[in-house]
């Protein structure tokens, strides 16, 4: 089970409203390569890892990804804070507003609702860890795209940090995969 | 953010393999009225609750629902533990096995992958809390169906406990809804 | 069965083309909290209501929601009438045009096709009626968002009237729910 | 708008419980070639038919398809009436029961929720009517499959009648298509 | 099996960047009436055609549709070539960029991922061929919409050619349907 | 473009009807880790590979995966050939029969229609190739599950061969990934 700690894993403090970036950032919230997909991928796969080390690593990173979901959610919330109807219309966020007003909802950047079809669990530790490594690479690529789309330092800070975390996860999954291959799983 | 505690919210200790119940129980894992839908519903809606009390309640119950996801996952895992290929075939779990072996994957009882279309966020606290009350009622109804489908006491214990938790959540959401209506939100 | 009466439940007479509002209004046509979801929700649930009164109420309101689907469709049609290609492009309706020209198609405001995953039927009258109450609240919230997005009186008239109907349905479902709770269903 | 008449278009009176057929029949309720898809297809396309005759025909047949949805729903209801938990398990309807108890819900025969992706509207009368002709042929083929799957005369009666209706609709759409082609639409 | 020939079925040589058209053209790539849906429809249906002629025709046209998928993909690629971030933002392609950078991905024009729900296979040659005829009509209508949306001759050339191919396929399917009806399939 | 060669990449000659295996095998036809997903993944990603070698490899393997789709389709066809209605019912293939008779249709083993959400394209060669490596590992794992589910040598032959091809593809993608990393893409 989880205990909630009332703080973000990394501080978010966005001072400049930016509805267009809010619309794009949501891909890391509920999109195919986003943090929710990552969290659920690992928290599902952990049940069939072959040893405690694997189960612990997947639980650990899966739990961290939940914190990333929360960070992205906070970023989107702050980017939308205080927007007027006119600003919402201009930014093309009116279709979101019509349905969700200023609420969060896990979709990709086109508004397609999150689906578990974005990730796989195979019960095969080698296949699952390779999928995890790919997931971290894809998330890194998406963070790089988002970084290219903004020059707001308040946004760049957490995006760069999150991108870095994906690389660290990539490395940890790679190490475990190597170990499991050596062990013949 | 969340800290993982290596224990279940309520102990799960299923001694009797039961693949057919594993196949059905998954509806509370990744189905339309299941625990994952509940967790994501509340953890998304909390951002637009109008006061700290509301945000705290939704964070609190959302976090507990994550623990319920874990409990259901553990139950499914234990129900499938040690199954032979023949048993898997007989129970009609072979379509799951072909794709996921013995791994968990969030679907409904027919194998349809989880989708965020199962829940709504409106940015309107009254509408959201009414949706939450409905969600708890629907989850209660599904737990009652599952309870009707088994007589294994190891399974009935946690199912009855989870059903009870839904009623408690229903009451807490109802109280907050009444308060918000009085306050004119 | 149903007999078609060649008139709308409430008159629609929109004189000003407005492609952007057409794009948004479609959420009440085929979106998660829209009229089609409402109609199908009630017309499905009625089969398991415990008495004639419940079956009649759900049939009655379900049938009215079909008329609301028709009203929304007519509004969208009139908002798009006579649009030129240039206007369609400017309003961002070109993706709709590419696929559907000026035809209607039930999606949400982002163009995601309608899915039955938006509503639930549980066979439990208390859970179903609570879901219905939530549906009416969510539809009310969406109508309020749409009302905020326009100042065209030709549009505001029917939107305000439809919003009012949702409140009336909310009250009728609430009364039946109270009665059913008293009766111990 | 529509007025509900409290009678079925064709009498349904199924005396023999048959859960397996209930599970299959649902494809004509919420499946890709089913009656709901047909009703929504025509009721959406009618807005862009080029003349009153076309609009009237699509409204007329769309309205009749709603009555067919109701007939199929009634058939499924009667086929499931009075089933015990044991019978539900044996028939493989337990995954439906877990989620919906004995309620109706529009899916295909595998339990996949209805989606509007099953039908198209193009705003081109020739293309739409050709799609409608195809829809009627596909529905006919599905009715023939269902007829092959049962020998219960209470079921065969309405299935044969519904199949016949699809042929009549096919003919009416074909005639209109010929007329529209002659007229150069 | 298939052998790849390193040439397009019809030459594509688009000299003018046009991100908005790229966004729209994708409907013929992964949308409901698009070339991928067509290819998969025919390549699936061919297995149940009643004679060699039918199997050959469906294989033949299905294979050609794969070449059309490739043509459309090439067109989209060329339309996006060399786009700057600013141009991508202005054209509303930023949501695509965030997730896919400049890569291709089969969706409709709103970004909804391709689904097999767009096409049907019934195992009934008459129904399948009627569906195929409808598919060709719908694809023709979509090509006409796209042609209306551009005046770039580099784009109009292949679009007109592709539209023409759909008409030829329509005729070939119509002839086979007539033959099969005569033969009483 | 592609030229069709009227032969399978590997001979399929299944002499024993086996409807249950047909139902499971379909996961490699239209399931999340199946051959269609693989083919479309590579044929989409090739457009953004950084050099001719990469484009050629992805075209090459993507084309081979189309041949694997055809092999799997042929296997399913042969496994279902000559089945009676009674056999179809017993094998639980009646829900397929109701909708598709004996036709092929790309779904997973639970009947969920194929969706492009199963694969990703990122426009980042390193991320894409890592995704491809994961895809091959997952397909290998699924083939192993299928191999565990049968002892028919006519089926085991092609399944073992296909599994072997996935390993070869895994190796080729790994080599290219190493090269691209060295080159600093």
Task: Write out key terms for the chains shown.
mainly alpha; 64% helix; 185 residues; homohexamer
Task: Provide an overview of this structure.
Six copies of one chain form a homohexamer. Chain A has 185 residues and is mostly helical. Chain A is 64% helix and 2% strand. Chain A contains eight helices and one strand; from the N terminus they run E-H-H-H-H-H-H-H-H. The two termini of chain A are 28 Å apart. The interface between C and D is large, with 46 and 46 residues. Strand 1 (2-4) of chain C pairs antiparallel with strand 1 of chain D, so a sheet runs across the interface.
Q: Strands, helices and their partners?
A:
6 copies of one chain form a homohexamer.
Chain A: E1 2-4, H1 19-25, H2 27-30, H3 35-45, H4 52-80, H5 85-90, H6 94-100, H7 125-148, H8 153-183
Q: In short, what is this structure?
A:
Six copies of one chain form a homohexamer. Chain A has helices at 19-25, 27-30, 35-45, 52-80, 85-90, 94-100, 125-148, 153-183; one strand at residues 2-4.
Structural class of chain A: mainly alpha
Helices and strands of chain A, in order, run as EHHHHHHHH
Kindly report the greatest chain-chain contact and the residue count on each side. Answer: A-B, 46 and 46 residues
> What is the helix content of chain A?
55-70%
Described by the principal axes of the CA atoms, the overall outline of chain A is: elongated
Distance between the termini of chain A: 28 Å
As residue ranges, the low-confidence spans of chain A are: none
How many individual β-strands of chain A? 1
Mean pLDDT of chain A: 98
Beta content of chain A comes to under 5%
The helix tally of chain A amounts to: 8
Report the major sheet of chain A.
Answer: none
User: What multimeric state do the chains show?
Assistant: homohexamer
Radius of gyration of chain A: 17 Å
């Amino acid at each position: 089970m989880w205990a909630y700690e009332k703080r973000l894993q990394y501080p978010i403090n966005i001072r400049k409203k930016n509805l267009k970036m809010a619309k794009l950032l949501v891909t890391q919230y509920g999109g195919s390569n986003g943090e929710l997909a990552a969290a659920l991928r690992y928290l599902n796969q952990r049940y069939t890892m072959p040893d405690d080390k694997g189960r612990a690593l997947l639980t650990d990173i899966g739990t961290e990804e939940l914190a990333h979901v929360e960070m992205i959610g906070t970023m989107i919330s702050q980017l939308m804070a205080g927007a007027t109807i006119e600003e919402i219309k201009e930014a093309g966020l009116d279709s979101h507003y019509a349905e969700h007003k200023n609420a969060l909802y896990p979709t990709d950047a086109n508004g397609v609702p999150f689906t578990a079809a974005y990730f796989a669990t195979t019960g095969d530790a080698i296949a699952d860890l390779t999928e995890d490594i790919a997931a971290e690479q894809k998330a890194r690529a998406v963070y790089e795209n988002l970084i290219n789309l903004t020059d707001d330092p308040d946004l760049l800070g957490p995006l760069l940090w999150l991108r870095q975390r994906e690389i660290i996860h990539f490395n940890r999954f790679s190490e475990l995969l190597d170990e499991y291959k050596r062990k013949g799983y």
